[in-house]
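DATA SHEET
Item: assembly model
Revision: 1
Owner: S.N.
Input lines:
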Amino acid sequence: MRIALDAMGGDEAPLKIVEGGVQALRESGNRFELVLVGRKDAIEKELSRLSVPGLNLSIVHASEVIEMHETPNTALKQKRDSSIVVGSNLHKEKKVDAFVSAGNTGAFMAASTLILGRLKGVGRPAVGTPLPTVKGTCFLIDSGANSDSRPQHLLEFGVMGSIYAREILRKENPTVGLLNIGEESSKGNELAQAAYPLLEKSGLNFIGNVEGRDIFAGKADVILCDGFVGNIVLKFAESILPTLKNRFMSYASGNPLKLVWAGLMSRTLKKVLKGFSYEVQGGAPLLGVDGIPIIGHGSSSVLAVKNMVLRAEEMANRNISRLIENSITQIETKAE
Amino acid sequence: MRIALDAMGGDEAPLKIVEGGVQALRESGNRFELVLVGRKDAIEKELSRLSVPGLNLSIVHASEVIEMHETPNTALKQKRDSSIVVGSNLHKEKKVDAFVSAGNTGAFMAASTLILGRLKGVGRPAVGTPLPTVKGTCFLIDSGANSDSRPQHLLEFGVMGSIYAREILRKENPTVGLLNIGEESSKGNELAQAAYPLLEKSGLNFIGNVEGRDIFAGKADVILCDGFVGNIVLKFAESILPTLKNRFMSYASGNPLKLVWAGLMSRTLKKVLKGFSYEVQGGAPLLGVDGIPIIGHGSSSVLAVKNMVLRAEEMANRNISRLIENSITQIETKAE
């Protein structure tokens, strides 16, 4: 198994990225090959800091870097030798089995879709994001690849999300909920109303509508929505920990006793909310393309990168793309 | 000023509702008249528990109660003598200046829209919800009255939200943000893309798109979205405190030392997150109808009801409905 890692993508690239990749390789006991994509000299410099002899890693040089603020389509056209394009081409040519990037999300999604191509039967690839719940983890799909989805697309998201939940989150017969504003099937916008009956007869373990409050409650293993809604929910969710932190700082600010108290509390809070950090969730795969691209948070830490690389290997091992293609074809045959 | 309160609406009605209303009246120094709508005997029973002589309150009898689980339209047709219908009729006849209910939200919204009618120039009334931010409070509109809004409706929400933010949240020249999935004007779904230019030339203090992470960060005073998105965000937000609580209990469960520690922490957490409880936010007004209906959370506590009643009086004093009608007309003239 060969896992490519965009060494240049992320706010703290290549430093934290390379280190995270190396940690993943070490933790796995050298089980796969790590392919670091990016500027050779920069990557080698980072590797020299870490002790890597005997580790199963290689470098594929890419001279350019797509910066976080660049417009995806323009950047992809102009920077043909960027780590994102070079890595995606390796992925297309099956020289690697998965590709992880914490770089420019739009550029990475566009490159993955254009270069890898869609799987047979998939109308729209979608990003799925594992989110913490009080019961464990759920999978929010689509969390940002598509706006103005059609009902059929939500059905596809349901198929893809169920496979991820079963194979990776190890949920037997995962429950699927449609994100909506009420429980009854008649509730919601036109999209939700039209998707409901499709999901009902899909053969998925569809449990009906779920509301905003049901996400953290863990009411469904897979939560379906259009990417516009999903992306807003995801970014809102990601703001909760920083907001808590801000409130604590503001509470304690200028008061030494309160500061000590807040410091003690924050250690416990970290334990209590461990699963609520994106770092442990293994990144957000773009499902429905012919390959395994995993999107990382721009501010990915070493821990976050390590977990994404390990997740990528697991997804490749489970052959997620082939499972999706087979299931989508079956559902479509059924619907005809 | 006369403020009506649905004594029968809410999980703990009439007990907590009547008590909250009485507290508001007391706190205001008997400044307005509180009109309790509902079963006379049940209300009188609650009042007898509280010491109310000299308080400026009256009862309007309504023999029926619309329960929380009932289908709004059916319930409104069948229960013409319910507290929601009776209160809305009083409101329509200008016998009261505002009406607060923590009862069946759908039924209350429908009754308010149908019985009070829309203000001139308003295509779609919308629910606005004050939400906490690290800087104070923002106003999310629409948080659930409409799905599949059109661009013009988002403009109306912007006008109504700006008036609420200015008059009630005391923000001078409130900033208005369009909830979206990226900063650039070209981002988002068809609705957001079409609403952006309307907002740009509206004369509102439009600051462009805001993302999910910007809500708690307080980037905009007024946050505009379709009610489908807004309702999901709102219910998700409301689930944060219960989720934190659940995580703490689960952390401490079965370990006496941890339980003591968690107990100590929870007192501080309550202080730190005080603004994050819906109880202090004064309820969610339905704006754009000819009157001031304020929607309360089903599980409204005494504190929540007190704050809603006081907010209702403030909104009536500020004559919010007339201000909306005037502004909407101006914006429409401008757009022609």
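QC remark: DSSP finds 13 helices and eleven strands in chain B.
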